[in-house]
Amino acid sequence: MRYYFYNANSHNNFIDDCFPRAYSIVMNITWKEAYKELCKSAMEQGQMMDSAVFVRSFLDKKFKRIPYIETYIGEFAENHPVGKYLITTNNHITACIDGYIIDTWDCTSKRIEYIWKIWYNLYRECRNHSLILYYGRYFYYEQESWYARK
Asked: Are 90 and 146 in the same domain?
């Protein structure tokens, strides 16, 4: 299994903040920026930010939900070594980037509920990272990010 521990919470708290935590990781924004964006959208819809209904509707508006064969998060990560995904299970959401599950706990044994493919925002990532072209693929490096420790 390819799991990487990372807590995006700006205060390093271990609380029920899986949506802003996972969203900030795949969007390459801070936890505070993600929290503000999700709170604003939830308030406009009259929903709670951690509601499964809100999570699905928010992600469906921004990204493409992809079909999948019923499997576990770890198996999905192993079979998808390239790309960014948000994956929901029963009462949890996690980030998968280039085959790594990035979360505060190892949820690789959880059964998948839904998956959204996150399309790279190259402008934002070029601005915030050093972008490297290697064998026709773009990789980026940031000294304090999980990419530097792979």
From this structure: no
